[in-house]
Structure prediction request, 312 residues.
Amino acid sequence: MSYELLLISGNSNRPLAVEISKYLNQRLADVTIKKFSDGEISVKINENIRGKDVFIIQPTSAPANDHIMELLLILDAVRRASAKRITAVIPYYGYGRQDRKSEPRVPISARLVADILQVSSLDRVITVDLHADQIQGFFHIPVDNLYAAPVFIKHLKEKSFQNPVVVSPDTGGVERARYLANHIDAGLAIIDKRRPQPNIAEIMNVIGDVEGKECILYDDMIDTAGTITKAAKALKEQGAKTVIACATHAVLSGPAIERLKESVLDQVIFTNTIYLPESKQLDKIKVLSIADLIGEAIRRIHNEESVSSLFL
Prediction:
């Protein structure tokens, strides 16, 4: 492409942005982001970006409202500075679970966030493992929803599993679990789950043979860890030899860390779409980098190459 690639990082996950910049052999732009005493966010681009192909790396993880606002302000600053094209790289899409009207008189928050981003003259979005694929349709611009599965597949193939079974923690994640199972030559099982209230899950039944097997629970995120820890307990009660969990996004809110620590899970594997502070790190938690996958998507988009092979 004739115009120069430029990477900008917000404050949400700067370590990931640094890894992406190293993969691309591109520096991060000089940007000042600070807060005034009243909490308002201030953004200033400290270099010329006129005519450049700008990629802004900013997961909208907790605190979601601050990180979304920070992204919006960077978008506006970049557009007003006459960038040629602007792509928001949002590895974790905040409000993604509010993707439909699940009851009367509630918003479709994921759609509202998409509308707000597009008002900021955004040209393209790169994200990873959206909670619901239909969120792509909330945008009127191209959305590349990358899958973290290749990162997990590479790691799991290096382990010496004797009789692995990939387990979906609910019926909604069966396709995701089947994809992983097919690529690591594993069986498939499903957890039949009932959720009486938000963030409260009651495990009812295990569908499939897990006795004596090495079980891999696979989900897009772990939030309060209620579902995943109860699923792990149910699998152990059904005779599972070992249980590990793989999840793309380490949301880990509320009692999540304590639940994981006390759970029967042998290991929990995340990607680094969300920054994991030291206070949330446990011996049983392992974090895999997704920087190369995102970096390759950025490189191909900048060079006007196909990114379809990254979805396989």
The first strand starts at residue 5 and ends at 9.
